[in-house]
Amino acid sequence: MLLLKTDKARQELMPGVRTLSLRERSLLLLADAKPMQELQAMYHGEGSRIVDELMRAGYLRHPSPTASTNDEPPASQALPLPRSRVPLRSLAGTRMYLFDICERMFARRNPDLAQQFHTALRDAKDRWSMLDVGEAMLEEVGYLAGTERAAAIREHMNQLLPQAHEEALAA
């Protein structure tokens, strides 16, 4: 079953708004694109607790019973953006994705390197400095997990980038 983001969740994901933890925000970003069971399995089982807390706090909800046949909210509760499996393109979403990759790939294996990447991502003040950090992370992912894994992460990162940034990277 897919969970739906509420208006409160969309507000939380707006640029400049940060009331939730990094894990809560990254799980919230993925909520419309992943099944509930997959979200609950994230972060070594911590995802279940996070999903429950986000639902209790009003950030996530189950589809209404009238919408259960097609997983779409009723017209009176229609989302302002089309629901699709294509992720929304934004620099904020890309940054959150990079934080998540940093956590997954480096936090346990090399905490010092993870901290360096976290700091570099927080300090990146523009798109190019953020993408430079991302490329450095991808290079390390290539060493740790292989070039195929790094390529898959790069492809997903490119799907999250706003169109203009993707075209500029290709140039």
Major sheet: size, sense and barrel closure?
Answer: 2 strands, antiparallel
- Rg over CA atoms, rounded to whole Å, is 17 Å
- Mean pLDDT, rounded to whole units? 78
Low-confidence stretches: 67-87
What class would the helix/strand composition place it in? Answer: mainly alpha
Strand share of the residues?
A: under 5%
Major β-sheet strand ordering:
1-2
Helix-strand topology string = EHHHHEHHHHH
Number of helical runs?
9
| Alpha carbon gap, first and last residue | 40 Å
Shape: globular
Number of strands: 2
* Helix content class: 55-70%
Give a structural overview.
The chain has 9 helices and 2 strands. The chain has 171 residues and is mostly helical. 23% of the residues are buried. The protein has a two-stranded antiparallel ribbon.
Short description:
With 171 residues, this protein is mostly helical. It has a two-stranded antiparallel ribbon.
Architecture blueprint of SSEs:
Blueprint: E1 4-5, H1 7-12, H2 22-30, H3 36-40, H4 46-56, E2 60-61, H5 91-106, H6 111-123, H7 127-145, H8 147-160, H9 163-170
Antiparallel strand pairs: 1-2
Helix pairs in contact: 2-4, 2-5, 5-6, 5-7, 5-8, 6-7, 7-8
Key terms for this structure?
171 residues; two-stranded antiparallel ribbon; 2 strands
